[in-house]
Structure formats: structure tokens, C-alpha cells
Prior knowledge:
- Helix content is 20%, strand content 28%.
- By secondary structure, it is of the alpha+beta class.
- The strands form 2 sheets. Strands 5, 6, 7, 8 and 9 form a 5-stranded antiparallel beta sheet that branches. Strands 1-2-3-4 form a 4-stranded antiparallel beta sheet, sandwiched between helices.
- The radius of gyration is 18 Å and the shape is globular.
Amino acid sequence: MALRVTTLAERPEFASSLFAMDHTWHEFVFNDPIADLFYPIATTAYADYVLVADDDAEPGRLVARGCMIPYRAGGAELPDDGWDGVIRRGWLARERGLRPDAISALEISIRRDVQGTGLSSLMLAAMRDRAARLGFTELVAPVRPNRKHLEPHTPISEYAFRTRDDGLPYDPWLRVHVRAGGKIVKVAPRSMVVAGTPAEWRKWTELPFDRTGAVEVPGALSPVHCYVEQDHAVYVEPNVWVSHPLD
């Protein structure tokens, strides 16, 4: 597969199908309200920060996408609210007319039928290159470890720094980042927050949500806290901050 990666600004014909690509995301992740500060305007306000990819076998059909957001860090350390935090800070900088001084990855999504073919590494390399071309010296990423969902009760502070015998991260997606030159910096304990009623969670997951307590949800990195008597259930997702210096 010969992958062609460009920005959405360079290939606006992908705008209409950008989020229609077949994927493996679980429905509950689409109900983080902070996402509405980025995704509805991603194809217009952030087209220079969205990467799109197709290949020579099917030119014009989206194979992968990658989204980044510039934000105002102001010298502060990477925030505990991770993914939500950089989107909120990016939106505020844009609304206030402030010049961004940092850039964060938000996602790399690969079309379902070509997952496992190494495209994630290629998209990450393209993302690093694009951030450097935009003048940034560092790309940060609130990484969603792709095997953490198999251990929802393991603390992220333990999981994030677990390594194999060769010293590389245990988690495959964290391993890709480290091999690309990234460094694990810290955890983002409340990177994404999804709150809803038990009825909404039943719709999103097809699970009963009929008892108060921790609920394990397929695809979730930690248990969902359900409080039936108060009619709410809240998911707080931890991520892992990775820093990519750009030379």
C-alpha cells in the first residue's frame, strides 16, 4: 500500500466523508461534550491540522485520518484533564484571538479493514512532520493505550509505565509512540469525562446499568461509576501524556 497523506486543507474533498469512515470506536466516547468544541468545526477552522490519507489502490477513498489542535499552554505543565483539556484550551485560544504556543494530537483513526497493517506508525510520523512544518518544536499526545480496556481496574499510573523485557512499553500503542521518538511524561487521570443517565448508558452500551456501583463497559479504560438512586453514571477516562520533541 502506497499511502498518500495530506492535510484536509489541501484535499477538501475529504471533508464530507471525514467522520463517515468505518471505525472501531465505541459509542460512549462520542458523548464527551468537550468534543463539540473541535469536531463540528474540524473541517473548517482546523483543516490545516487534520491529516487525511488514501492509497494508490483506492485513490479518493479515506484510509486514515489524524487530528491535532493548537492550544495555549502558557508555560504550564501538561494538564491532568488531558484530551478534554487541550480541546478546551485550543477553543479558548481561538475564541480569544490568542496565539497558540503548543500543539497536541487528538486522534489517529484507521479504517477498520486495514487496521493492523502499520498505518498508525505512518500516520504518527506524518503528524510529527506536520507539527514541525507548522513551526512547533514539540508535539504532545494524550494517548489512549489500546490494551488498557482489558484491565479496567488497573491504575493508569501502574499501567502507563509497565515495560517489556526489552524496556519498551507493554502497551502496543504506547510502544509505537516511544519507537517514533516519544517519551512518556505523566498520566492524565481525567482526560475524558462522559456523564449520562443510566438510561443513556443503556442505549450507548446495551448493558443494564440497573445497580449502583462500578460497571465494566467493553472498550472503557476504567469502570463507569453508576449511581442509580441519583440517576446518573459517569465515566472518567485516564490517558497517558507522551511528548514528541521535533528536531
